[in-house]
Amino acid sequence: MTATTTASMAATPARTARPPSARLRSWATRAPLLPALIFMIVVTQLPFVATLVISFFDWNALYPKARHFTGLDNYHQVLTDPDLRHSVWTTVLLTVAVVLVSLILGLGLALLLDRRFRGRGIVRTLLIAPFLVVPVAAALLWKHVLYNPEYGLLNGLLHYVGGPQPDWISNTPLLAVEASLVWQWTPFMMLILLAGLQSRDHQQIEAARVDGASDWQIFRHLTLPHLRRYLELGALLGSIYIVQNFDAVFTLTSGGLGTANLPYTVYQSFYQAHENGLASAAGVLVVIGSIVIATFALRVVSSLFREEVSRA
Amino acid sequence: MSAVAVRIRRRRGAGLGLLAWLIGLLFFLPIAWMALTSFHSEADAATNPPSFGAALTLDGYRDFFGVGGGASPWPALINSTVASLVSTLCVLLLALPAAYALSVRRVKKWTDVLFFFLSTKMLPVVAGLLPIYLFAKNAGMLDNIWLLVILYTSMNLPIAVWMMQSFLAEVPVAVIEAAQIDGARLPTVLARVVAPIALPGIAATALICFIFSWNELLFARVLTGVVAETAPVFLTGFITSQGLFLAKVCAASLVISLPVLAAGFAAQDKLVQGLSLGAVK
After folding, report:
1. Which range (B74-78, B132-136, B184-188, B255-259) has the least confidence?
2. Which of B36, B122, B156 to mutate to test the interface with A (most CBs of A within 10 A)?
3. Which of A14, A256, A296, B176 is 20 to 30 Å from A58 by CA-CA measure?
4. What is the dihedral of CA B223, B229, B235, B240, to 10 degrees?
5. What residues form the membrane-spanning segments (chain B) (predicted)?
6. Does A27 fall in a domain?
7. How do residues A170-200 score in pLDDT, each as one tens digit?
8. Domains of chain B
9. Highest mean pLDDT of the ranges A204-208, A236-240, B164-168
């Protein structure tokens, strides 16, 4: 994906027959772009190529002399390691659950906030706040202040109604991580969907209402089709961010109790186990997974983008 | 519409407004509780049932800032400030000319270039982490705040290019051409003509880049140690419980989140645009 765009970039200065002034001018047009482009290629693409190369080596940082080429052995080991396979499953589960729930909640909230009511601005601000807490701080807040079985707020509130006093993180570790992420990501989904709702054609909706369409009919046949692309965009961007989540897993459970997702596992396998080759192979697999999601994401972004461009 | 129907609609509207208020307060409750707890004494913070009306004190904040001994958060806060501000500045310096070449005087295949930037954002951080770590180790750049500055710049550059591209596209080309005919050179055109029109958008972009840099944990955790640790890394010191420390945790979380909350509320209107990489306005 990235290779094709850079290749097509390089292919542009083909008009050598033109007088040099035209060539100079086309380079002058391109010049402001180059620092950013070169910087991005060096800082993001080169390390990935290095990861790809390392993934073919048996390389433990504690035994640097024993480094040797092993072909696809690391991939074989990664794909057959039950822990790693479990972390793939955890990643999928975590991402799908968080994205779906926050998308549905976000849609509900966006619909509520699309109406006029007293203090709408304040409610919007209250709802955005969770997204603006530093992720580690948010995870600490859930871990110690809300989930703590002895003095956490959740059990404190349950105490009033005589409810049980569960140990949330030990009993339902993955759900605990998911709940904290849903809390942070629902505002994000709400903001995207609210932007979608506000870009609806209001005359069309008024016309439908005058023609006697019910609220549900308007939602089902006008609003939802219009929102489809925004829903897709929210889902895909959410997936890209949450597939990579490290902060919540690291803070809430330190990857224990079966909550280690792929980024955490990769982090652990080189930072703690010093298995450079294995970590790289796992990293490459994460990238392949992301490319699958990203291909769809880019398509959605590009269709929204082209709409914008053609409208302008 | 009959008067009755209008009244029903209005009453239901009020009910839905109330529901929105309730959910908004529910989402805000953890933060409000965190703020209240940060002003409680440690003994009052760790009670069940919770002590809502306990006496207020600044002990949690004193504890966090290391007044009575213990690690001071100031080096971490300063590191975070330097990394976030400098990287945001670098992002702006690189992104502004790039966005200009992608929106005002467009290079050929400008959409391809734009999508190249976006695609780098979808490359997971963990994929490049190990080579970066090995490089930093060999170059003696581990535990160095400037390494984070470079990485945060690369992390935020695509977002900034996308956002600014869409802001600069709103600058009328005729104005720019007029300035160029008058003999103004590119830097002058950028500073005098483009910047004033695009300034609110540029400010929002900067705020969003600042937020992302300030929040970042994985790079900072792997690549920094004692000297260059950032505020989120400092927070990871609270992961394991240390007796009665709830008020201190709340104070720490709140203080470290404060710059992000401030930046986020300031950039509220442009927040979606930044987070959706400019795809949603």
Report:
1. B184-188
2. B122
3. A256
4. 60
5. 82-102, 114-133, 145-168, 189-213, 219-238, 245-267
6. no
7. 888 999 999 999 999 999 899 889 888 888 8
8. 3-64 (no CATH), 74-275 (1.10.3720.10)
9. A204-208
3-class secondary structure, A246? coil
User: DSSP string of B188-231?
Assistant: HIIIIIIHHHHHHHHHHHHHHHHHHHHH--HHHHHH--TTT--H
Q: What angle do CA A109, A111, A113 make, to 5 degrees?
A: 65
Mean pLDDT of chain B: 84
Q: What is the mean pLDDT of residues B207-226?
A: 90
Q: What are A58's strand-pairing partners?
A: A68
Q: Is residue A104 part of a domain?
A: yes
* Distance in Å from the first CA to the final CA of chain A: 27
Residue A32 lies in a domain: no
Task: Kindly report each contact of residues A200-208 with a partner whose C-beta sits within 8 Å and lies 24 or more positions away, as own/partner.
Answer: A200/A226, A201/A226
Supply the pTM of this predicted model: 0.84
The partner residue sitting opposite A140, judged by closest CB among B235, B276, B280, is B235
Decide if pLDDT at A11 tops 50: no
Q: How confident is the model at residue A45 (pLDDT cuts 50, 70, 90)?
A: confident
Q: Work out how many domains chain A is built from and give that number.
A: 1
The number of C-alpha atoms within 13 Å of A32 and in the hemisphere containing its C-beta is: 23
The reply to whether A254 touches chain B by the CB within 8 Å rule is yes
Torsion angle (degrees, nearest 10) of CA B104, B109, B115, B119: -130
- Give me the domain span that covers residue A77: 49-311
Cross-chain CB nearest to B257 (options A9, A115, A134): A134
